[in-house]
């Protein structure tokens, strides 16, 4: 029960890693607010998660400041505070650099990077008044090393890493810690929908010393650690969860 009594917000929690993070937070004793761009999806996830604790759900476009502000305001109204923000919402498309259209570039940066900025800024304003809080951002090993056909995704995740470091510096005086999780190859719907050829996905396994793809639960465990008081002297860093993959690169 490392998060007992904490109020946590998890974005992009309608499925996959986001839902796993929310479930882990609940299992650790937190009250959890989840959001997703699709109303039906987040409501279904809330129904599944209700078995583990108190859950509140919202349909939110993380690129829309008014949407995010309304969710944060309602969270504070209902629960009185926000202790944890997990910025998980994200999208990915597998496309060669020479074929990326402006819309796909802009959409990827908007959801992954600008969405993280908007959610963090609004939640941090609440945390600053409390003089405490923990923000954990979803980055990626793609934010540390490049990978072909994912220029827009790579750029967004590298931006999240540096955004997190800057936030950690500026928010430390308010008692707010900021860290990033950098997963490698994880079995998710997003990974399957990205359009990467199956043969290239198989090549990942040859690069991973543990010889398997990671699970959503393993990423959620890392989020729970950095969100907890066990990580009270950790801020401005990246925790890589990749089975050792980038040791080769």
TrEMBL record:
Keyword Oxidoreductase: yes
Cross-referenced PROSITE patterns: ADH_SHORT
GO biological process, one term: bile acid metabolic process
Pfam families from the UniProt entry: adh_short_C2
UniProt cross-references to InterPro entries, sorted A to Z: NAD(P)-bd_dom_sf, Sc_DH/Rdtase_CS, SDR_fam
Protein keywords: Oxidoreductase
A single MF term (Gene Ontology): oxidoreductase activity, acting on the CH-OH group of donors, NAD or NADP as acceptor
Family: Belongs to the short-chain dehydrogenases/reductases (SDR) family.
Name under which the protein is recorded: 3-oxoacyl-ACP reductase
